[in-house]
Write a structure and sequence with these properties.
Strand order of the largest sheet: 10-9-8-11-12-13
Number of domains: 2
Shape: globular
CATH architecture of the largest domain: 3-Layer(aba) Sandwich
Oligomer: single chain
Helix content: 40-55%
Number of strands: 13
Radius of gyration: 21 Å
Distance between the termini: 15 Å
Number of helices: 17
Strand content: 15-25%
CATH class of the largest domain: Alpha Beta
Length: about 375
Amino acid sequence: MRKLLFHLNCFEQGGAERVVSNLVNQLVQEDYEVIAATEWQGEVEFALDPKVRRISVGLRPEDEEKSRITKIYLRFSYLHRLIREEKPDVVISFTRRPNYRALVSAIGTHVPVIPAVRQDPKSYYNTWADKLLMPTLYRLAKGCVFQTAEQMSYFPKSLQKRSRIILNPVNDKYLQAEIPQQKEKVVVQSGRLVDFKNQAMLFRAFIKVHEKHPDYILKLYGPDSGDGTREKLEEIIRQNHAEEYMILMGGSDELQRELPKAEIYAFSSDYEGMPNALLEAMTLGMPVVATDCPCGGPATVIENGVNGILIPVGDEKAMTENINRLIEDEELREGLAGEALHIRERINGQAILQQWKEYIEEVLE
């Protein structure tokens, strides 16, 4: 039986955390022994199979009064000690800081590390420290999992040769969801209210859409990130007296039922890794207007004009025009929706699980 140690900050609800929770839950059903080593426990987390062993490698209460340098050392030390004690076949880490911790903590253990890069490297690996650490530490990786070719291109060529591109799996509830025959006159988006998703651009664009199509409304599903985005969106609504047609719905666990009621899905991010929300919308057979944002996530899954529409990042005019185009052209809407459904063949849980299993075995052999 293979023993796998996954390392990430926590399982609080977010894109990478969703992917890891799905993956570890599947792996323990495939007779892998799985350890989830996390820094802390989030308030609202994705559920883990009881067979997944959750171990904390974060700071302890007695560490809180120690210096910053000491805290950094202890984080590496706790993870290093766990790797030595458990002797996993491989360590798999997710997102920037856990990747750094795993690569450093595994030094001297002879345990291979597979970091998974989720974000846009240009936006997330842009400090002087990152520019030093990224090319240095990632060379220690046995391999790496990326989501797009553009993402991979930022990393050392020697690493690229032993890495793989694996997309995110979509939860089965989206694959099994019923798609209503009758659609509501709604444009929808789902995702955290956060600056880089540029929901403010979508709101400004929809004000113009509503002027032409006053019977349509915009619904935005997603929790508040606390970075001030919600307040900005509320101000746009207030200034334009748009309370009746632009609605902040908050978070929902029923998106597989709510999203497909809408006619159109709009994606407005300035940058992302591989956006789960976009994949879920396509899995639900929704016609999508999406920004062609770095690091190439939308362009990896959308063929422009075939299974969705790609527009330039931040282009409010293009967002307005293409939402109007889909509202006015039922044949185009239905054509894009039908083609979008084919994404299910690429990103169902079993297909992605098999790719991970094959890559893990390849790395270990």
